[in-house]
Amino acid sequence: MKKLMILFLLVALAALSACGTSEDNGSTGEGNGNEESSDSSDMRTYETENGEEVEVPDEPERIVVLSSYAGNVLELDGNIVGVDSWSKMNPNFESQLEGVEEVSADNLEKIIELDPDLIVGLASTENVDQLNEIAPTVTYTYGELGYLEQHVEIGKLLGKEEEAQTWVDEFKADAQETGEQIKEEIGEDATVTVIENFEKELYVFGDNWARGTEILYQEMGLKMPEKVKEMAMEPGFYAISPEVLPEYAGDYIIFSKNSDTETSFEQTETYQSIPAVENGNVFEADAKKFYFNDAISLQHQLDFFKEKFLGEE
């Protein structure tokens, strides 16, 4: 029954869209009086990561994002009408997503109601075939592209590749210059560990799993403790117990902190005796602002590092 309802809604939406196009052509007096839509001239071919060709709007106007790429779309002035729950709760996007519907891939009816002309998701997004019936749907495999290449690729999808590349060039230059300043401040050999508490687990991170790791290790060239490199580089993250945190702790710790989950380990003697803690070199960040590596989140993370390492406001 649910499948039949979805099919009915899709057909009804297509019919309404066709009627709207015909009425628009008649009311504006454009064209030569025929009923043929001009939509085809507003579409272009986009090649996905799998080499498949998808017809997407030349300038999408109503975008649904079902992944961690909301910040990339927003940075490029894309109009988001529906967004996933993780992006919706991200404080970095709060003002720009005010009034935007929270959606998921299993709520096709709500997505249909939003009338998107483009849907962006992850390769793991469910119901992609059904989503494609609603609007052109493009998915990406997380980590398949470099974190800055991903922004350029989304710029290409939105018809704003040049703007995306300009942002990337400026960001890289800023991050690398900041990295040199930080190394002058803390020393070339100083190590930095990124940790995060989530529910009852504690994690350390490699150099490509958001939380500012791409900036610290890839762009700034700061050093990672050997134990973190051994365990977290290949998978991207690694779960540890608080008791072994001293083995992974660098001279500086970036603590992506979920204040609403378990943090009692901070009160233990084991944690308090870590040199970075004793020296006041633990920088606490709001985990919700550090989860992603989109353009807006990256800028927030870079500003955070400038403030904490260099005292810049």
From TrEMBL:
<keyword id="KW-0732">Signal</keyword>
<feature type="region of interest" description="Disordered">
    <location>
        <begin position="21"/>
        <end position="57"/>
    </location>
</feature>
<keyword id="KW-0813">Transport</keyword>
<dbReference type="InterPro" id="IPR051313">
    <property type="entry name" value="Bact_iron-sidero_bind"/>
</dbReference>
<dbReference type="GO" id="GO:0030288">
    <property type="term" value="C:outer membrane-bounded periplasmic space"/>
</dbReference>
<feature type="domain" description="Fe/B12 periplasmic-binding">
    <location>
        <begin position="62"/>
        <end position="313"/>
    </location>
</feature>
<protein>
    <submittedName>
        <fullName>Iron complex transport system substrate-binding protein</fullName>
    </submittedName>
</protein>
<dbReference type="InterPro" id="IPR002491">
    <property type="entry name" value="ABC_transptr_periplasmic_BD"/>
</dbReference>
<dbReference type="GO" id="GO:1901678">
    <property type="term" value="P:iron coordination entity transport"/>
</dbReference>
<dbReference type="Pfam" id="PF01497">
    <property type="entry name" value="Peripla_BP_2"/>
</dbReference>
<feature type="signal peptide">
    <location>
        <begin position="1"/>
        <end position="20"/>
    </location>
</feature>
<comment type="similarity">
    <text>Belongs to the bacterial solute-binding protein 8 family.</text>
</comment>
<dbReference type="GO" id="GO:0005886">
    <property type="term" value="C:plasma membrane"/>
</dbReference>
